[in-house]
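Moderator note: this is an archived Q&A kept for reference. The question asked for a predicted structure of one protein chain; the sequence and the answer are reproduced below.
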Amino acid sequence: MVFIKLKEDFVIKTENLGDNIIGIIMDRPNSSHNFQDQKAISEFHKLLTKIVNKNNVKGVVIYSAKKSFLVGGDLDELRKAKLPTQLMKITVKVNAAFRLMENSKIPFVAAINGLALGGGLELALACNYRIGALDNTLRLGLPEVTLGLMPGGGGTQRLPRLIGYTNSLPMLMKGTPITAEEASNIGVLDECVPKEKLLEVAKNRILEGKISSNQLWDDPQKKSVGKPSKKELENLDNIINQNKNKNAIDPALVSTVEAIREGANLPFDKAIKIENEKFSNVASGAVAKNKIRTLFYALNTANSFHIRPKTIPKYHVSEVSVIGSGLMGSGIAYRAALAGINVNLMDVSEKITNKAIEGISKIAYKAVDRKLITKDEADKLMGHITPATKYKNIRNSDLVIEAVSENIKLKQKVFSKVLENVLPSVPVASNTSTISIDKISKKLENPINIIGLHFFAPVERMKLVEVVKGNKTSDVTLAKALDFLSLIKKTPIVVNDCHGFFTSRVVATYTAEAITMLSEGVSPSLLDNCAIEAGMPIGPLEMADITSLVLLKDIFISIIGDGDQSWVKGINVLETLDKLIIDFQRTGKREGKGIYSYTNNKLEEWSELKLVFPSHPNSLNAEVIEQRLFFVQALEAARALEEGVVENPVDADLASVLGWSFPSAYGGVLGYVDHIGIGKFISTAHKLADEFGERFIPPGILLEMKTSGRKFHRV
């Protein structure tokens, strides 16, 4: 066996597999996965040069010694590169190595286990034959677009030429990895075999002599393979035109489709150059760096549960009780049961709990239909849930979560009953989204055991949980709560207690500003479209209708409290909601009439809205609408950071992106300030304050940042 070692930590091994077949083994020490950096790419190229110049090599099998094949490039290198030319050097090296393989006339086989993502799939595509392991962990994908990037190792050119333009677009535009079965069906994989047979089958396929060393895109006898039809070209053009206006917040998507379109009818090497150029421009841009910072580094850090107190032993959670079987309680029960935890789902009657369990069953088997879980997993999940109506049923709980309505007296009553029936060491959590944990735990026994676990709807899909520490919450309780969240695969952001915590108080500013502008006569469709154009997935007023205006009013009453918070100054939200609900019986989408009207579930403008809220001659333009919607959020997030509610800008940004889908193009709600520039942000905020109210006055933390020239994020 020959070892070729990089100067630092990446090792590429070559192994003689017999019969003049060489194995290339990827194995990065001190890492659970393989990923490629510039040094690894250079060594890989040197190794390939030696192999292709050898005599009598019948073929090469590329495989991994890790649990995955290869998960892509080194994001640290991409983040540090500031100029497109720096990134161009990386992609040129990658593609030179891949073209060396393709032009060698030696058949290369990829024996794929686990994950082959980004550069990993691109390496496999440069091979002449791809064999996947029959394993539930196998996933193939080009997820670059989800991090503001695009393929840079030929993915936009090889994949469409291999499986066609129609099949490849979902993988390239959405970035969602596919299973072995899906990959086989569309031709990404040539065959699938049991994991232990990968090398044996790979070697046999080479010895059979049936694998062509000519790639489809290089074979003169197969010029028509992978050529797009006229209809497919028109579709690409339409996608580009439809997304041009989103280029500022999602340049990766547009550039990916442009690379596919422009390279479609070009010779392969010229098409690769187009991809290289577009990749270099996208990867060196601010959007990619923002997304990588938040959706990769911050997300992975949060998922490492680094915030958990280190000296406290791991807590074993085998039984959980959820009090309240509504939307949130049912979702929490679903996630806990999916993790194999026994769940007591408790409500005031068997009829209510049984109805909730029926709802959970529908969620579970819909997940089976969507291939998110297996039927066996769904069956086991349902077996873990037991209906309960008496507090004595929760006595063996390792954790209790209260998920009743947002009423402090009701919550205190529930907590009092829970604490009477569980062991004194058991943590008890509230799923409240607005009510202070200290207020809930006031006058209750064992306040050190009380914590907030603010889940987001729908719980079965939303990853974020806002963990709220009360002033008396112990480190032991925090550690136990985090151990539970780790089991159910949630992403925690730990915040300190206050009215509305972090997420609810910041989201409230956004919705309140939208409703205030509605009362000023701004068209709801204009307002919602401005939000969507700026990167929000749905407009705030349409979301208000979906939530229910009645429920939204209750939420605002709770979160506004005594009204002394800065963001409340000058808003007109409760009065506006009262006018809609009481004077005109407009309650939301469910009843077909809210801020909008709904016919057969289709949204349309309410014809009388302009009479209720007349427009003004100096109606706002799109730029001012966007500023008002986004500045109120950033200002409140900065105040929360200043107050110590959220402890660092990275957590604030991650919470905003995962919690309410603040545009990841900016990196998050505080990244938005960096995007604008602190000087420009403050001057614009003062102008907004002069015209629309003192809620736009910048807090001291921002003024200090302007004086010191500091940013929230260095990269």
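Archived answer notes: Residues 1-9 have pLDDT under 50 and may be disordered.
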